[in-house]
Specification:
The protein is built from 12 helices and 8 strands. Helix 4 packs across helix 12 and helix 5 crosses helix 6. Bound molecules: zinc ion. Zinc ion binds next to loops.
Length: 313
C-alpha cells in the first residue's frame, strides 16, 4: 500500500496551470463553489441577482430581491477576502502546499510566485492556519502506535528526555494489520505526564483501540485506563532490533516530520511549530487522495474560512 501511495500521480503542475491560468478562471471556479448550488443574499436572504464587477475587476452579485441592492462580493467570507494579490498566485501557493510531499519553503514560494518574502510568508501562514482549523475531527482507531519525541535542541531523540530547550510532542499513528501507517495525530506538550497523555487520548484516540508504546511512565495511563488495551515494550530489554521493528511506522513518521520541518523550513520558532505539525498532518492524513486535495482545500477556503487571520501574532 505504501508504494501505491508514493506512486500516486496527483495533479501535474502543467494541468493545474492550464486549469487556472487567468483571474477569470480562478474567480469562476470560486463562484461555482460559493454559489453553484444557489445564491442567497447575505443581507436579505433574497435569491435574485445580477452579476457585476468592482472597479478593481472583482466579481460581485448585486441582490435584485426586495429592493435590497446589496453587493455580495465573491471573496468576502473566503480566505481570499481583502487580498490584493492575484488569485492565480494564491491558487498556485495552495497547489504547492497540498501537492508537494514536503510542502514548500517561504523562499521557494517567494521565487516561484514572484512575490516579496513577507508576502510569501503570510500566504503560507494563512494556508497553514486553514489547514490547522480543519484538523481532521476523526479519531485514530483499532491499532495505534504512540511515541514521545522532541523537536529542536542539540540532541534529538530519546537520550535527552526532559531537556528545556526542546519542544516535546506526542505522535500517534494508526496502522493496518501489516503495520502500514494510516493516519497521524501530533500534539506539542509541556512535558510527558499521564495527564498530558490522557488529554491526548481523549481527543484523538478512539476507545477500544489497541495502543502500543514504549515503557515511558506517562504511557501507563493506557494500562490504567479501561478504555484501551495497552501493549508496552521495554525498548532496552530483549531483542533491540525486533523492538525497533515494532515501532517502525511511528519512527519513520517522526523522522519524516523532523526532516520536513528542519529540512526546508530552517529555524522554526516554537510558536510556528504547531502550524507545521498541522500542515504535515493535513497532508499526511489526506494523502490517499492526492488528486482531490487542492479541490478539497478550495472548498474549505470558501466555506470554512474564518477570515480573521492576519498573520500578526
Ligand atoms: Zn439582498
Amino acid at each position: 500500500m505504501a508504494n501505491n501511495i508514493q506512486k500516486q500521480k496527483g495533479i501535474s503542475l502543467i494541468d493545474f496551470l492550464e486549469r487556472f491560468d487567468s483571474e477569470e478562471k480562478c474567480e469562476s471556479y470560486l463562484e461555482k463553489l460559493k454559489w453553484g448550488k444557489g445564491f442567497i443574499c447575505s443581507k436579505c436572504g433574497g435569491t435574485k441577482y445580477y452579476k457585476s464587477k468592482t472597479k478593481n475587476g472583482r466579481l460581485f452579485y448585486r441582490c435584485k430581491s426586495n429592493g435590497c441592492k446589496h453587493r455580495n462580493h465573491l471573496l468576502v467570507g473566503t480566505m481570499f477576502q481583502s487580498t490584493k494579490l492575484p488569485l492565480k498566485k494564491w491558487f498556485l501557493a495552495i497547489y504547492f502546499m497540498t501537492q508537494g510531499k514536503k510542502g514548500i519553503s517561504t523562499l521557494d514560494l517567494m521565487r516561484k510566485l514572484n512575490v516579496k518574502e513577507d508576502t510569501a510568508h503570510l500566504m503560507k501562514l494563512k494556508i497553514m492556519a486553514l489547514m490547522e482549523s480543519r484538523g481532521d475531527g476523526t479519531q485514530l482507531e483499532s491499532l495505534i502506535k504512540i511515541d514521545d519525541a522532541y523537536y529542536g535542541g542539540k540532541h534529538e531523540g530519546k537520550s535527552g528526555r526532559g531537556s528545556e530547550n526542546k519542544q516535546a510532542f506526542l505522535a500517534a499513528v494508526s496502522t493496518d494489520e501489516e503495520g502500514h501507517p494510516l493516519k497521524v495525530k501530533l500534539k506539542p506538550l509541556k512535558s510527558f505526564t499521564k495527564a498530558g497523555v490522557a488529554n491526548f487520548a481523549k481527543k484523538f484516540l478512539a476507545k477500544g483501540a489497541k495502543v502500543f508504546s514504549d515503557a515511558l511512565n506517562a504511557f501507563n495511563f493506557f494500562s490504567e485506563s479501561e478504555d484501551y488495551e495497552h501493549y508496552r515494550t521495554n525498548m532496552s530489554k530483549g531483542n533491540k532490533k525486533e523492538n525497533y521493528k515494532k515501532f517502525n511506522s511511528i519512527n519513520t513518521l517522526i523522522a519524516n516530520l523532523k526532516s520536513f520541518i528542519g529540512g526546508i523550513h530552517h529555524c522554526v520558532s516554537e510558536k510556528y511549530l504547531v502550524k507545521y505539525f498541522a500542515e504535515f498532518q493535513y497532508r499526511f492524513n489526506r494523502r490517499f487522495d492526492l488528486k482531490a486535495l487542492p479541490d478539497r482545500f478550495f472548498y474549505t477556503s470558501v466555506h470554512y474560512s474564518t477570515c480573521n487571520y492576519s498573520g500578526k501574532k
